[in-house]
């Protein structure tokens, strides 16, 4: 029970110290995010990628610092629960006029669970639910920038308003021809307004900060006319002369979903009030969970907090059971899911077969690499959790048997809370967005071709072609990001809701620049040529691309499409050329939108990813 009186001086001091730790974290986080503008203006792509990677570690560093301070100054771990209850109430009071209360609550949870060694969700002295509203928070200082700016053009003044929207960001680099680019944007917007009566409320709302990622800066906003709202984004890039250009005009929720995909690196955005940015972005992408939007903005810990709250809410309103996920079992991960929930849960097994020469620590390092790396829309982001409690009644017996057999060190079962109900606690797991495994996606298409009527068979053949082309494109995008996927079997790739192919099995990934791509040596004798064994010397990171074919191209229809579109993936020269360019410092161009959406411009020096 919470105390009726706040009579502990040390409780207030703990709360204030906790908030000091959070404020330091967000100040540094915001400084790094704001510095992305200067790096973009200077076309310092390597520094931009490095900052994106290093910023991920900011949160855990500040949590550790706060834990050390609280232990040294207040012996926090030895304080009675009454003090912690009061500390939480004081903390709530300190957040009433705070601009990032939801992030500060999560920071309190992170520090408290480190000190009190209590990480189950049903804890009285952490914020299981938010205590402070994030609605209608405003910075009342006169010089403060608003969350978004509103422009009120007519048809005749829309062009000059588009120019004003861009110039208001005060980019310190010259545009090649801003009027030309604004005209291209105007034509794209006008196409959406043909035959549409402009209502009295016709306006353009644009978030006040640019969104930076890799080589791109994005204007994000929406057109409002009557009851209709149309999301849009304008990618700003550098051309081959080092001048700025607007590369496209992206429209609608699907385009914005691609831009903010869970398979892409996090944005850098200077936000005073992140909840207001999330609320605006949610109006553009109402199907995207708030947790994923926070994560896309680099606030991954808040994303995890909201995901877990959504997950608990889903458990309360569902009754299906966790099961072993459909598909070919992995050798490193045991994967399970809840059929009604669109995510999968992955646990590292205790033992791996001989062909998997790795350790638990190495697998975790690979997942961290993916978290910190540019995922170019082709590697699924993961949520990593420790000590997660589930109700035993929600587990299928076959799944529990598999966990006890494959990962007993990660499992604890019992009435751990003393409430008369058994729990299953998993000590470490990864959670990813669920996709259709590519091998299953193709198998379903093959079945339709074989058994369906002509129209269904024709659609299935298109499905096969699209999947194979997307598979090759996914590998080439990973190559551009300096990633060699390692195990390239179809089962390690998934198909998203909008048909994108994404890689999700990371235990064998390597940096492309660490691999040695070779042609298979010619046999010197007939015995060598007929041998079923590898007769030539192979180094630990030697890759022979021509040997991919027997594993990938057994189906004739798959083989035909693959060789028509991606035969270069079987050529060592393709891989070696990309490796050498990356080593020379080149940052490849990977676009988060289709090529046909781009305006006609000169060749670009940089492109987003």
UniProtKB/TrEMBL annotation:
Domain Isocitrate dehydrogenase kinase/phosphatase (AceK) kinase as annotated: residue spans: 320-595
Claim: Transferase is one of the keywords in the record: yes
Documented EC number(s): 2.7.11.5, 3.1.3.-
Any one biological process term the GO annotation gives: glucose metabolic process
Binding site for ATP: 325-331, 346
InterPro entries linked: AceK_kinase, AceK_regulatory, Isocitrate_DH_AceK
Sample GO molecular function, one term: phosphoprotein phosphatase activity
Pfam families linked to this entry: AceK_kinase, AceK_regulatory
UniProt subcellular location: Cytoplasm
Domain Isocitrate dehydrogenase kinase/phosphatase (AceK) regulatory: 15-319
Keywords: ATP-binding, Cytoplasm, Glyoxylate bypass, Hydrolase, Kinase, Nucleotide-binding, Protein phosphatase, Serine/threonine-protein kinase, Transferase, Tricarboxylic acid cycle
Catalysed reactions listed for this entry: L-seryl-[isocitrate dehydrogenase] + ATP = O-phospho-L-seryl-[isocitrate dehydrogenase] + ADP + H(+)
Primary residence: cytoplasm
Gene Ontology CC: cytoplasm
Residues at the catalytic site: 381
Family the entry assigns: Belongs to the AceK family.
Function of the protein: Bifunctional enzyme which can phosphorylate or dephosphorylate isocitrate dehydrogenase (IDH) on a specific serine residue. This is a regulatory mechanism which enables bacteria to bypass the Krebs cycle via the glyoxylate shunt in response to the source of carbon. When bacteria are grown on glucose, IDH is fully active and unphosphorylated, but when grown on acetate or ethanol, the activity of IDH declines drastically concomitant with its phosphorylation.
Protein name: Isocitrate dehydrogenase kinase/phosphatase
Phylogenetic classification of the source organism: Bacteria, Pseudomonadati, Pseudomonadota, Betaproteobacteria, Burkholderiales
């Amino acid at each position: 029970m919470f105390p009726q009186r706040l009579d502990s001086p040390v409780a207030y001091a703990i709360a204030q110290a906790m908030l000091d730790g959070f404020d330091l974290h967000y100040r540094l986080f915001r400084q790094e995010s704001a510095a992305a503008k200067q790096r973009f203006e200077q076309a310092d792509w390597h520094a931009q990628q490095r900052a994106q990677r290093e910023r991920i570690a900011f949160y855990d560093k500040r949590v550790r610092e706060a834990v050390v301070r609280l232990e040294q100054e207040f012996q926090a771990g030895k304080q009675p629960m009454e003090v912690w209850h009061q500390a939480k109430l004081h903390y709530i009071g300190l957040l009433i006029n705070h601009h990032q209360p939801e992030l500060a609550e999560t920071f309190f949870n992170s520090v408290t669970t480190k000190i009190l060694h209590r990480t189950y969700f049903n804890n009285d002295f952490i914020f299981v639910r938010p205590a402070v509203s994030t609605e209608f928070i405003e910075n009342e200082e006169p010089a403060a920038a608003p969350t978004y700016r509103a422009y009120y053009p007519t048809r005749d003044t829309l062009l000059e308003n588009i120019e004003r929207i861009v110039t208001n960001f005060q980019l310190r680099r010259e545009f090649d021809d801003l009027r030309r680019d604004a005209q291209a944007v105007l034509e794209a917007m006008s196409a959406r307004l043909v035959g549409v009566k402009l209502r009295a409320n016709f306006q353009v709302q644009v978030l006040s900060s640019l969104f930076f990622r890799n080589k791109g800066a994005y204007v994000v906003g929406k057109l409002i006319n009557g009851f209709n709202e149309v999301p849009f984004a304008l990618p700003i890039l550098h051309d081959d002369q080092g001048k700025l250009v607007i590369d496209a005009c992206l429209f609608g929720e699907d385009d914005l979903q691609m831009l903010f995909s869970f398979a892409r690196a996090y944005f850098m955005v200077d936000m005073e009030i992140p909840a207001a940015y999330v609320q605006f972005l949610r109006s553009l992408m109402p199907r995207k969970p708030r947790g994923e939007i926070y994560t896309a903005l680099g606030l991954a810990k808040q994303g995890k907090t909201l995901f877990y709250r959504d997950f608990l809410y889903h458990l309360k309103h569902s009754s299906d059971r966790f099961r072993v996920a459909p598909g070919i079992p992995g050798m490193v991960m045991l994967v399970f899911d809840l059929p009604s929930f669109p995510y999968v849960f992955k646990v590292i097994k205790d033992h791996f077969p001989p062909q998997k020469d790795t350790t638990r620590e190495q697998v975790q390092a690979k997942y961290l690499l993916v978290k910190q790396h540019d995922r170019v829309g082709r590697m699924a982001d993961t949520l990593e959790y420790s000590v997660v409690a589930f109700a035993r009644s929600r587990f299928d017996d076959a799944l529990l048997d598999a966990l006890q057999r494959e990962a007993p060190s990660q499992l604890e079962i019992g009435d751990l809370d003393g409430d008369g109900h058994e729990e299953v606690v998993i000590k470490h797991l990864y959670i990813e967005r669920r996709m259709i495994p590519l091998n299953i996606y193709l198998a379903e298409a093959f079945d339709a071709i074989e058994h369906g009527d002509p129209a269904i068979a024709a659609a299935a053949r298109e499905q096969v072609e699209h999947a194979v082309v997307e598979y090759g494109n996914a590998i080439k995008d990973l190559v551009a990001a300096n990633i060699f996927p390692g195990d390239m079997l179809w089962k390690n790739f998934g198909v998203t809701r909008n048909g994108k192919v994404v890689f999700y099995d990371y235990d064998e990934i390597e940096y492309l620049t660490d691999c040695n791509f070779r042609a298979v040596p010619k046999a010197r004798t007939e015995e060598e040529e007929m041998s079923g064994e590898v007769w030539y010397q192979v180094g630990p990171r030697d890759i022979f691309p021509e040997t991919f074919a027997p594993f990938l191209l057994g189906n004739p229809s798959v083989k035909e499409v693959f060789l028509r579109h991606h035969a270069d993936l079987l050529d060592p020269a393709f891989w070696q050329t990309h490796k050498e360019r990356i080593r020379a410092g080149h940052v490849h161009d990977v676009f988060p939108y289709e090529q046909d959406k781009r305006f006609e411009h000169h060749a670009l020096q940089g492109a987003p990813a």
